[in-house]
Amino acid sequence: MARPRQLLFVMDPLARLDLAGDTTLAWIVEARARGHEAWWCGPEHLGCEADDAVARAWRVEAADLADGARAEGGAGRAQPLGCWDAVFMRKDPPIGLEYLTATMLLERARGKTLLVNDPRGLREINEKLAILQFPELTPRTIVTRDMARLRSFLAEQEGVIVVKPLDGAGGSGVFVACDGDPNLSSIFEQVTGFGARWAMAQRYLPEVRAGDKRIILLDGAPVGAVLRVPADHEARANLHVGGKPQATELDAAELNICAVIGPWLRSLGQVFVGIDVIGGKLTEINVTSPTGIRQIAALGGPRLEVAFLDWVERAISALGR
Question: DSSP 3-state assignment of 282?
Answer without folding.
Answer: strand
